[in-house]
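Observation: inputs received (chain + cytidine-5'-triphosphate).
Thought: call the complex predictor directly.
Action: predict_structure
Action Input:
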Amino acid sequence: MQLNDKKVIVTGGPTREWIDPVRYISNASSGKMGIAIADAAYKQCKELVFIHGPIDGSLISGKPYRCKGVESTVDMLEAIKQELSPNLVLIMAAAPADYKPVTKSPTKIKKTNENLIIELQRNPDILKTIASIKKQHQEFNNIVLIGFAAETTDVIAYGKTKLVEKELAMICINDVSRSDTGFGSDFNEVTVMLANGKIINLHRMTKKEVAEGIINIIINEL
Ligand code: CTP
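Observation:
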């Protein structure tokens, strides 16, 4: 698949779900892998948009492509929907929060002597939502979905399940239990699995090199 006639959306970073005006639920994603992919894809594609959750702004200052900041998982889904177009490749390197508090307290929650229970509700699955939009609208039929999987156990098996359930063309599987790669690190080691079952290993290297490897696989294998 050539990218020079394609719009590419790359997502990166965590999302943030507020509990009250001073507290939120989030995760340890730094956004570095998403930025590395955006950098690598930008050189190859027609148009690139990087949609990111709350990340260190210095990581994206001066980037030559459009960057859109969002906060929650629902915000990220809405931002992606606004950018949908035919001939699109969506690379979901973000780590959107899967749950959000049922209600956000308008005032700071004061501590008591009791345990505190916060009820959480499911957020939408962004990739599954876009897969369903893709099927419902003919103009979006050719959108290509690429996912990531952050796993700590049964890495390949869980990755394969996500590839199938999220209707992906390809998934990049990360073992985030390792301290020398993954979240926050400048290094990564990724196993790429294609929808046809082919597996390609990108051994421990910088996130920049992994990103270039992933873009080359998209161009050569999809
Ligand atoms: N993802 C998504 N919408 C969500 C959560 C995740 O589209 N609400 C995407 C991620 O960007 C990634 C892929 O789905 O490309 C897998 O994310 P991951 O966090 O590994 O898995 P989950 O689907 O959230 O499943 P679990 O947390 O149970 O492992």
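Thought: report the result.
Final Answer: Residues 7-97+119-221 form a domain with the Rossmann fold fold (CATH 3.40.50.10300). The longest strand covers residues 144-151.
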